Amino acid sequence: MAVRIETQSDGIAVVTVDNPPVNALSQAIRQGLLDAAVALDADPRVRGVVLLCAGRTFIAGADISEFGKPPQAPRLPDVIARIERAAKPWLAAIHGAALGGGLEVALGCRWRVAEETARFGLPEVTLGIIPGAGGTVRLPRLVDAKEAIELAAAGRQIGAAAARDIGLIDAMLGQNLREKAVAFLIDALSKPWPTILCDRPASEAPADFWDEQKARIGKRARGEIAPLRALESLRRATEQGFDEAMAFERRTFLDLRDSEQARALRYVFFAERSAHKPPEYDDAAPRQIETSAVIGGGTMGAGIAAALRNAGLPVILVERDQAALERGLANVGAIFEAATKRGGLTPEAAQARMAGVSGTTDYARLVDVDLVIEAVFEDIEVKRAVFRSLSGACRPDAVLATNTSYLDPNAIAEAVTNPERMIGLHFFSPANVMKLLEIVPAAETADEIVATGLALARRLAKIPVVAGICDGFIGNRILKVTRAQAERLILSGATPREVDGAMRSFGMPMGPFEAQDLGGLDIAAFQRKAARARGETPFAPVADRLVDMGRLGQKSGGGWYDYSPGDRTPQPSPAVAAIVADAAALSLSRQWSAAEIADAIVLPMINEASKILGEGIAKRAADIDLVKIHGYGFPRWRGGPMHYAEARGLEEVAAILERLSADGLAEPPGAFLRAAAKRGGFDLSQQ
Ligand code: 3H9
Q1: pLDDT digit string (tens) for 376-411?
Q2: What value of ipTM does the predicted structure carry?
Q3: Catalytic site residue 414?
C-alpha cells in the first residue's frame, strides 16, 4: 500500500506515505490520503493523525511526470482541504525535503514538525509553474509576506532552523522523528489547537511593498514568467478571501502548466537527472575515491580543490615551488573565506575545510591518492611533464584526470603509464560554483574510469556530460561560434552594447562582449594562436586587434568597452568603434533589432551544436542543452539551444540560417540540422 494507516493504542493514527523514490503525489497517493482522512475521522479510537513518509524524504511534490497527461481525480487542493478540515487534526512530521505539493500538504496540517536536516520550499517556479494546491494562499497566512515571496516567487529552499525561525514549522525535533512527533501531537492535543490556515487572515504588507517586490523579482526573473505570476498570486492571497485567492492560484497554475516555459523547464529537470546515468556506462562500476590531489593552485586548481573539499574529500595541492604553493593555498583559503562572508559557511566549517587541504611540492606525497586532477597551464608539454611525474609517483591504478579545456586528452595520455585510467574532467570557472562537468574519455580510457567521473560529479553536486574529443569539446566549441557571430554583428552595423543588450533580453546573464571583458580576452587569443598554428583560420579580426593593443578586458582597464578606474560599468569605446569602422569597411552595415541579433547568435550556435551531435561528440541533444545551461548561462527556461530550436521549429531555424549565410553572416545549415528538420526534430529523449 502506498498510503498505510496504523492506529496506536494512544489514539494517534500514523499515516505513512510510501512511494519511492521521493514520495511524489501520484494519483494513488492523493486518493490514499483522501481515504485516510475520511476513514480516520470516522474512527472513534483516533484522536489525532501523524503524517510521515517512508524512505529518504517527505513528499517532494506533485508527480512532475503526470503534468503532460490528463488530470486524474482527486485533485490535490481537494485532498488538502479535506485534511485541513478533518475533525481529527493532522500533524506533518517531516524529514528530507517537503517541496511543492509536499509543503502544501504540510500547510494543510494543523502542526508541522521536522528533523533538523529537513528542507522546505515551493520550487514550482523553477518548473515554470506556480504552486497549484494553496501554497501561495496558505503560506502568507502562516509566515510574513516577505518570507512567503522568497519561498514561492523566488523558489528559495530553507533548512529546518530557518523554517522554525519564520514560523513555518512548530518544532525542530532530533532523531526518532516518529516517536517525537507522536509525543508532540499528544501534548498539542491537550492545548488549544491553532486555527487552520484557511480560516486565518493573511499577513499584511504596506502599500508600496508589492511594487518593490515586483521590481525585485522581475529583475531576477530575466524573462521567466512564473516568478511574477507567483508574486501576483501571493498578492491576491493577502488582499482577497481564501476561496477567491485559491481559485486565482489554480487558474494560474493550470495556465502555466501547459506553457512553453514549463515544458522547457520540465525537460531540463528530467535531463539533469538522466545526465547522471548515461546508458553507455550502465555496466561500468565506478572506482572508490577517498583521497584526492590537485596539481596547480591557480584560479581553476583552487576552485577544484574547494569543490573536492566541499564534498568531503581530503585534498593535496601540488605546486612547482614553495612560493607558488603558498599562493595556491591562499587561493583555496580565499574561497572558503568568501563563503563565510556570504554566510554560506560558519567560520568553524571553513576552518575544517581548509584543514583538509595539505600542500606539497613533492610528487612523492601522491603515492597513495585515489584521484589526481591536473589544472596547470594549457600547454601540451607542461601537461605531459606533469603526467610523466604522476605516472612515476602515483599508484598504477590511481585515476589521473586533466582539466584541459582545449588540448587533446589523447596527446596528454601519451605521457601516462596505464593510460586506461586517464580521463579529461573539464571544470568551469569558478569550479566550486559552476554546475557543469564535461567528462572527456581519451581513446584508451576504461569505462569504469568514465563511471568514476560520473560518480564524482554526483558527489560534487555537478551535472556531468560525457563529451567526445574535438577542439573545445562541446561547450567551448559552441562558444567560439557565439563569439565569432557577435563579432560579425558589430562588423555589420550593430554596436557591442546592442549585441549584449539583445542577448540579455534573450535571457543570458551577460552579453558576449561583457563576458569577454570580464573573463579577459587573452585566453581566447591564445587558443586562436594555437588554432592558426594548426592551420585553422579563426574569425576574430577585431578581438585580435584589441589584444594586440593590450585591451584585454576589465583587468587592463578596457576591452570591448572602456572602464573608468575602480568602476566596472561598461562604457562604449571610441577606440573599439574606430577599429570596427576600419575592419568593417568591406562589410554591409544595417540596423539590427534585438530579435535579429539573438537569431544571428543563437541559430549558428544551434547549427554548430547539430554538427557536434552528428559527429557523436555529444551523444544526446539533451547533453548539449545541459552544457549550455550549466556552463554558459543559456536561459534554463528556454530549455537549452536544442530544445529552443525544436520549440521554434527546425525548418524555421534552417531557413533563417540560409538567409544569414546568403548575407555572409553565418555558415549555412549543416547536413545533420537539415536532416533533423526533415524528420521534424532532434531526438530530445534523454536515453
Ligand atoms: C508541484 O508540487 C506542484 C504543486 O504545487 C501543484 C499540484 C497541484 N515528480 O533528484 P533525484 C524523480 S511541482 C516525479 O535524483 P535526490 C527523479 O526524476 C513539484 N519524479 O534525487 C529521479 O528519478 P530517476 C515540486 C520526481 O535525492 C528520482 O526521483 N517539487 C520528482 O538528489 C530521484 O530524484 C519539486 O520540484 C517529482 N516531483 O533529490 C521537487 N522529484 O531515479 C523536485 C524527483 O528515475 N525534486 N523525481 O532519475 C527534487 O528537488 C529532488 O528530487 C529531491 C531529491 C530533493 C526531492
Answers
A1: 988 889 999 999 999 999 999 999 999 988 888 999
A2: 0.98
A3: no
